[in-house]
Design brief:
11 helices
Length: about 475
Amino acid sequence: MRRSISRLSRSSKSERSSTSGDPFAAAPVRGPSPRGPLTRTVSRFSADPDRAHDKKVAGLPIDPAVTAAKLSLRRLRDAVDTTASFYSKYAERKRGAASGNLPLLLPDLAEWSRHEAFCGDEESRRVLHTCAAQLAAIDDLLAAEHAAIGRAAAGLRGEARRLCEEGLDAVCAFELALRDASAASEAATKALRRGAAAGEAAKADGRKAASLKDEKKRQAAQAAAQRAQERSDADVVQAEGAVRRAEELLARLASDAQPAALRAAAEARQRAEDGPVASAAEALREAYSSFASGAARVLRGCQLPSGYCPTAKRKAPKETGARFASYVVQWTLAKRRGKAAAALLDEFAKSGLEALLSPPGEEAALELLAARCESEEAARRLRAVPLAEEAQAEAARGCGQCHSACVALSAACGEFRLLLKEWVASADEYEKREKARRGLAAKRDAAQAEVGKLSAAAEGAGAAGKSGGAAGEARA
C-alpha cells in the first residue's frame, strides 16, 4: 500500500512538473461541439470559446503533437473566416462611387447616339452606340463575376469552416477527456493518501490504547482504534482501485484516444483543404476566366444587349433665338453628353480598375490562406487565382484611352459650339445689316418713285403750259 502511495505521489508530482500552460487548445467530437456552437462570434461582451476551452485544460500534460494540430486548425479556420469575409464584403458592396463599385456604363453616349439632335453621321451613330452597348454587356459580366465571388465566399464560410471546427472538436474532446481522467487520478491519489494517513493514525491510537492501565478504557480505546483501522484499510483498498482505473484510463487515452483525435483532425483538415478551399479557389479562377472570355466576345461584337437605349435624365438644350438654332442645339447636346461621359470615367478612374475586376489586396488575402494550408495543391490553386499583372495593366491602359477619348470629345464639342456661336453671331450681324440695307434700298426706291412721279407731273404741267401759250397766240 505504501509503495502504491509513493508511486502515485511521484506520478502526480511528475505530471504537475511537466504541465504546459498552452493558452491555445481545441478539439472534435461526433455530435454537439464541446466548445459550444460552431459559429465563432467574439466581442467585447462575450467570451472567446477558444480561450474558454484553454482555461479548462490549462496545466495538463498535453502532448505537443496535439497542441500543434489544434493551433494549426485554428489558424486555418481563422484564415478561412478572414478570406470569406474579405470576398463577401467585396461581392456585397452597393453600387456607386462611395463604395468603389462604380458601374462602368456610359448611358449619356448611348442616349446621344439615338437622339434626334445627334450631329454625326450614321456611321458615327453606330460606333458610339456599339461602344456604349459593349460597356453595358461588360457590366453584366462583372455582375455575374461578383455573384460567383459571393458564392465562393459562402462555400468557404460554410463547409470549409465546418470541417475545421469538426477537426478542432475532436482535439478538444480528447483534451477534455484527459482533463477529467487527470482530475479522477488526482482525486484517487488524494483519497489513497487520506486512507493511509487514517491507518497510521489508527495504529497510533491502538498503541496509545494499549498503554492505558484501566482495563475498561483500554478495551474501549483498542476497539475504537481497531474500527478506525478497518475503515482506513477499506478506504485504501477503494482508493487503490480508483487509482488503478484512472491509470488505465490515462493509458487508454494515450494509446487510443490521442491517435484517434489526431487522425480525425488531420482528416478534417485534408477534407477542408482538398474540398471547399480548393473548390473556392477554382470558383474564383473560373469567375475571372469567364469574365475575361466573355469580355473578349463582347469586344468582337457578340453578346451585345439588344435594343440598348437608356434614358438620359438630362434634357436636351433649347435655343430659338438664332437663325441656325438647330445646329447650336446639336453641338450643345454633344458637348454635354461627352462631358457627362468624361465625368463618369473620372469617377471610375478614382476607384481604380483593379477595384472593379477584383478586390484590392486579394493577393495578400489568398497568400495568408495558402500559407495556412498543408495541401500543396490547395495552396497552388489559391496562389493562381489573382489576375495576371499584364492583364490588369492592359485593361488599365484601355480604360485610360477611353477616358482620354471622352475628354477630347467633350472639349472638341465645346470648341465647335463656341465657334458655331461666333458664326451665328456673324450671321445675325449680317442679317441686321442686310435688313438695314434692304430698308435703305426700299426707301431709296420709294424716293426715286416719288421723284419720278413729281418729274412726270412737272413735265405734264410744262407740256400743258406750252400748249396753252400756243393756242393763245393762234387766237390772237
